[in-house]
Please model this.
Amino acid sequence: MSTTVNSAYSYSPGANITAEATAAVTGRQFVKISGNRTAGGNLAVAPAAAGNRPLGVAADDAAVGQLVHVARGGVVKVIAAGAIAAGADVQVGAGGAASTASTGTVVGFAVTGAADGAVAEIAFYA
Model:
């Protein structure tokens, strides 16, 4: 006997998801929603611009039309745009990289410091 589950969740809160790239995506880059669901039923994502509110971080590279895993919670690895100090609030910077927060949406904080172009470990704010 099957049971219908009526849940408000499309995805588990904070869980990684699979999306479709509508623009080329680089791993360890913040991505944002870029439109409605694709024909395949996946969320549509593209690199986030500086100051944007991201959906999460691309786990790997994806060309247009390819599926990409998006990390949405916990501590994620993101390329740094400029030096970031451990403990500093972070926003999306140029090219979907992480940067020290200034005028954009604060998305988390650095759990480790990172030099420009290096990998920063970022804890998302819930």
Observations:
- The chain is about 0% helix and 35% strand.
- The chain has two domains: 17-71, 75-124.
